Amino acid sequence: LATQEGRIAQLTYLSDHLDEYGRFGCCRNGTNEDEHCAIFWNTNKLTWLQGDTIWLSETPEVPKSVGWDAAKARIATWSVFETADVLSNGFSPKLVVINTHLDHVGQEAREQSSRILSSLANNLTQRFDDASVVVCGDYNSVKADNPVYSTLTTGPYALKDAWEHAETQETGGARGTIHKFRGLAFDECYGDGTVELCAVAEPDKEDQDHIDWILFRESSNMRRDKDSGGT
Questions:
Q1: What does residue 38 show for φ and ψ, rounded to 5 degrees?
Q2: Which of 142, 5, 10 has the alpha carbon at shortest distance from 74?
Q3: Residue 175, Cα to own-chain centre: how many angstroms?
């Protein structure tokens, strides 16, 4: 479970009511006084091995650093897990989860951040024994004609879009994934005014103006196990 914009009181509430779940992640300003990109996991199915938070800026290791034309400090929190499953070849697969929230103002910041995320996903995959990777986030960008999306889903380190590979695809009638809940008066194209949610007048796919995406890449061990008839 990956959350964006969570405050410590909200995250603590979730932890208190999700008894079998662990939680990892720090605040974007280095304290508990601002938003987190937290990761929750089922401790019965996953064993947490390691994790960290980087800042999406020219200096990713510097806490609170603001990159390029961003309005706020932005982060990516990652964790590596070992799964309880054992593949047919005896391999116990690892899973990398990256959770992020890109800036709502700076287009350059979003594009540069996507490059950092692509590199991070690839580096962690190689570092942790060919792990599978899942990248979750609020990208503050629609998918259509967007270099942020294309950077993450094309090229040698391409991630797959979970929406496109899902067995069922349901939006509940909503065109976008931002709400800023305002009751029945809410305009789903306008949102909070920071992202042009209906930039695609007539999208050729239902998900082209989503700004929240789940991207993934299976490890070669997982692919080989499937090809050989494993689970």
A1: -90, 155
A2: 5
A3: 20
**Measured distance CA(107)–CA(117) in Å, rounded:** 15
Of all residues in the chain, what percent are helix, strand and coil, respectively (each to 5)?
Answer: 20, 25, 50
**Which tens digit of pLDDT belongs to each residue from 110-144?**
999 999 999 999 999 999 988 999 999 999 998 88
Report the topology of domain 2-227: Deoxyribonuclease I; Chain A (3.60.10)
Q: 142-163, pLDDT tens digit by residue?
A: 888 899 999 999 998 999 999 9
Token representation of residue 51: 């994790």
Residue ranges per structural domain of the chain: 2-227
Radius of gyration, alpha carbons of the chain:
18
Give 216's strand partners: 134, 160
User: Which amino acid type is present at position 52?
Assistant: D
CA 193 to centroid of chain Cα atoms? 22
